[in-house]
């Protein structure tokens, strides 16, 4: 029987939340706080979760910690959310992580962009094919940050692996996205705007139907307001939300996104929800910059 992945496709056409990974005072992952943050997202109406995403500090976690985060997410969410587990690194590690996600009952994996100084387009296909073929029962979502990759290569991958059902597209160029999606097959995949709320209106106008979010950790209602407006085709309303979150996202994007996770955790810390600590190569905000983040978070209806 051919798997249609209808449930997974619907889950991607939504706010795809990337939970932060909170750390305890001794620097270890804090399971109790992580569960509390997940409950807050679920209670706030979020139904798609990506443990081990970039906002979760994927590359700063050990293999054991990544497994723990996946396990905690699946256990806490139960049947309240679809789980899209971030996997990556070398091929055997990515495959092992994908199989672990399958064993736990997750329905999808997101394959992080290959971290390698020399990425050929054919090699990109081979990398993702190895993961997708290892877990044919799971929906597979490549995370694309490579502006050189062509839509034809994604189509080639999906020809070989029909469980490649969606794309997290994170090249900051709406025109390039529009062309890439049409070259790959606009209706063939679920297109997720991978650069979150700031890019969601422009990417939705070109064919995206979902977007990722780190901001959602702080204010789930704000992210839901944006996707509701976009689904309705109300770009005026969507841009009002855009204006509301603009400064927060500018702070995250500054200096090559150096504080992408830091700003989110600082906002959560200001609300008393988790510690502000991040792991190197990220760094907590200087004391002088914390007040602005706290003021933004306090100004949202949370």
From TrEMBL:
SMART domains: DHDPS
Keyword list, A-Z: Lyase
Hydrolase listed as a keyword: no
Major enzyme class: lyase
Top-rank taxon, per record: Bacteria
EC number(s) from the headed UniProt entry: 4.1.3.3, 4.2.1.41, 4.3.3.7
Annotated InterPro entries: Aldolase_TIM, DapA-like
Gene Ontology MF terms in the entry: 4-hydroxy-tetrahydrodipicolinate synthase activity; 5-dehydro-4-deoxyglucarate dehydratase activity; N-acetylneuraminate lyase activity
SUPFAM superfamilies: Aldolase
UniProt xrefs under CDD domains: DHDPS-like
Keyword Lyase: yes
Family in the record: Belongs to the DapA family.
The protein, known as: Dihydrodipicolinate synthase family protein
Originating organism: Streptomyces lancefieldiae
